[in-house]
Write a sequence for this structure.
């Protein structure tokens, strides 16, 4: 049996963590495209129970 050629190619993605700037906790993980600038988002921090700035950090 011959292999099928074609199909969808896998996109280059990386797993990154969003780390709370105030506590240093790893609260969120994301899969995003390679490259680009670092993310800085306001997300909920469960330890502080409020929204704080989270920055991207790789594995």
């Amino acid at each position: 049996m011959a292999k099928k050629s074609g199909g969808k190619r896998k996109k280059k993605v990386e797993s990154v963590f969003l780390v709370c700037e105030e506590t240093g906790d790893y609260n969120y993980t994301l899969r995003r495209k390679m490259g680009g600038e670092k993310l800085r988002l306001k997300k909920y921090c469960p330890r502080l129970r409020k929204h704080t700035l989270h920055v991207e950090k790789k594995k």
